[in-house]
Structure formats: C-alpha cells, structure tokens
Amino acid sequence: PPVGAEVNVAGVILHVVSWNVLNKHYMKCVEKDTQGLNGSTISLLHEAGQGHRERRLADIVMEMLLHKNRPTKTNLLCLQECWPEFLDLLEDRLRAARADRAGDFRLLRTGIQSWLRRTQKNQEAIIYDNSVLSLCDADSFRCHRGQDAYAKADPLKAVAEVLFEVKATTSPAQLRVLTTHVPKSPYGPGRAELCRCVARLLNATSSASSQGCNEQPRLSVPTLLLADLSFPEKAIRPLLQRAIRPLSVSFARIPYPTTLCEGSLLPKRIDSIAALSERDCMEVKAMEPEDVLPGLGAVVELLKSRSMDLAPVPQKEIRTDIEEAEKAEKWKRHQEKVLEARKKIQEKRWNKIEARMPFQDDGPSWMEGDVRVKRFAVLVRSADRERFQEVIARKMQLCIKELGFSDTGELERFYLGFDPDFEVWDSAGVAVSWPDEFEALAQERFPVKVSVKLPLPA
Questions:
Q1: Are the C-beta atoms of residues 105 and 65 closer than 8 Å to each other?
Q2: Pick from 196, 189, 183, 137: nearest CA to 163
C-alpha cells in the first residue's frame, strides 16, 4: 500500500504520497509466493495481460491525486518500480486531466533521454501539482546512477532528485525531493550507498540561479525523502543521520504496514517518508490510510492479519461427517500432489546424474550356472565415485524389473562384478578399488565394465 504525509514547508501544507507499484518485470517474485501474493489481484491482473494491470494502477494513481474525500489534492506523488508502458499510459491520463481542468499535474521519470524512456525497464517517477510546486529551472530534475548512486549494489537503479519552488509563500522557498528504491540484498552495500549519495547531494552547492530560485547552499534547502527503503527505518536512520550531520532526520510515523516478511508473512513497513533538514525547518505528519487513498483501510487491515499468528482466532466450527470426509479427501489429494512433485524432482536429479555417467548396453544377458548376467559399459570420473555407486544401484533395480522380478528386496542377494582389473563391490556398496591410472585421469571419463548378476526368475 502507499504511504502519505502532510508536510509543512514555509507555512504551506503539502500532501505527499509514496508508492511502490511492483514492476511487471519482477512478477517472478510473486509467482514464488514467498509473501502470499500469488493468486492475489496483482497476479490475476498481470496474467490477464492486455494492459489490464497498467490501467488499474493508473486509475488508483488518479484517485490518489484527485482525492475526493479530502479538501485538497495530493501535491506530490513518488512512484517506484515503474515500467515504460505504465508511465506512457499515466502521462496520457495526466494530459487528459489538464485538458479537463481537473488538475495541473506533471510527470518526471528517470528515463530522461528519449531512448531510455522505452528501454529502461525499471524507472522511478515523480508527479507534482504545478499549481503549488514548480521546477526552478531546466536542470532541476536529475537522475543519479552508477558511481553517483548504487555503484556496487545495482548500477542500473537510480536516485531521482528534483528541486522545486514552493508557491503561495510570503518569501521564496525551495524544496528538494528525493525518491528511490534501495536494493534489498540483506548484506549488500545498498543502504550505505544511499546514505553517501544523499550526503553528497545535500552538501553540494546549488547551480539554480534562474526563474526566481536564488543560488544558495544546498544544506539550507529542506529535503524530502520518499522511498521504498527495502528495510525498516531502524536499519537506515542511524546511517543516514551520521551521513548528513549536522542536519536532522525526521521520519513520518506511518501507522500501518506496507508489505509482508517472506516466509513468515508477518507484516512490516519498508516504505518511508523522511524530512532531512535543519531542526524545526520542516514538519512531517503521517496520514491515515483513508486520507491517502479511499478504501485503503480495508487493505491495511488485511495486511495486519495476514500472518496466521496475528489473525483473529476463529470460532470452533461444527463439521458434519460429509465435511470431514471432504476435508480428508482434499488432504489426500494434496499429499498425492506433493509426492508426485517430489518424484519429478528426484527424476530430474537422476537424469542429470546419469547424463554425466551414460550407460550403454553391452549386449544381451547370458547364463552362468543358475544366475543370469547382464553387462553394461559406463563412463565415469573419479570425482563422481560416490554418485557412481548410487547410479549403479539404480541400474540394478531397473534390471530387476526388466527381467521380471517384482520384489526389489532381493537386491541384498545381488552383487556386481567389475572387470578386468576391479575388485568386487559387495551388496552394501562400500568400496571399490580404483586403479592408479584412473586417479591420474581425475577429470577424464574412464570406461568401466559392470556386470549385474541376478538369480533366475521364479
């Protein structure tokens, strides 16, 4: 869910929102279902294709911007994980809103160059209300990548920066806005690189000197960070505070979670809005879910109770015998599917092993007294000696079935003979004497003749 806050900049109250829309190119994460999202509206709209999800997201964005249950519109909306087709559609919607005089909203995107607008699969976007905020000059919007942002964590990800002039103030006022999606590798350098990037941007001197924007040190410009931090605030606040001293860091106290922990499904919040400024220069106050988007309260309640441990304890249901039988049958079918899936996984594993050690039939079987002998030729490597024993045992079981044996428990009576220079490997499959020349060819495939001796079928 999106997060929002009221920001007081030089006496002007701004309504700002941040939202990670979940890039369609990252839907594999949803398909893995580590957060219980597979089968949700997100995946259903994605599977439907034909732009269904893009249109639904655009509807939600416009609903947040033109909030009907609030006296004022949303003045600033930062979006993470956008893709070109969605942003193109959003620009059309904003253009239509301007034509209908519903709102003078403008969109900035990190695919600044024309060739990047279509090829950059993952972009950040900033939508602003031009009646309240305006760009200081043509260079007010910047996109920082590579060495200027996440050089090691993810060079393709960007930190978007824009410098606004706040209108309707008694004295000229500026506001810097930063938005990004921090790479989420648990032990990666993403958090530290973000803090260094923010510190560099705040300590640089401004080059804005036109259209009423006075040239001034950037430290005096209040900065607003709206981002998907990929981590709770507690994991980033100390690093950020140390990086931007003497400025202060003030996070809006968002009162609800925005996502779920992988596996446990415990609710957590990783989307944040923070003021980076001189003390008491700018105030941020979190908005309630319904003030961000009508109907968001129900989504938040679902997130809070998504974990089984946090869900309300259901009342004991009285089940009939038919319902109990249906439940048992459903559990049985589930177990069968699990066993079938495990069987397929094991089969793939064996196929991969046997592909490394191919067997070749070395002619028909023959009789030696009261036993039937079947011979194979197999190419193995010394590094695969343990796997070799497993493969031989599996081949023995297949031979038993081919020769008409139904009881594989008789496997204990079978043994293998290696020729010409190998010792016997007994039924326990303990040891094989590997010749010196085999060790010398450690990674070369070495031909081994294997004879499987079986008692006559009954």
A1: yes
A2: 137
Interatomic CA distance for residues 440 and 438, integer angstroms = 5
Tokens 């824009």: give the residue. Answer: 162
* Res 62: pLDDT: 95
Would residue 318 be called left, alpha or beta, if left means φ above 0 and alpha means ψ between -120 and 50 degrees?
A: beta
pLDDT digits (tens, 9 = 90+) for 143-193: 999 999 999 999 989 999 999 999 877 777 899 999 999 998 877 899 999
Name the residue type at position 200. R
For residues 145 and 443, give the distance between their C-alpha atoms in angstroms, rounded to a whole number: 45
Q: Calculate mean pLDDT across residues 310-325.
A: 60
Q: Residue written as tokens 């039937």? A: 372
* Cβ pair 16, 74 in contact under 8 A: yes
What residue type is 7 in one-letter code? V
Name the residue among 416, 415, 423, 420 with its Cα closest to residue 448.
420
Distance CA 402, CA 183 (A): 55
Rg of the chain over Cα atoms, rounded to whole angstroms, equals 33
Structure tokens at 217: 């040190």
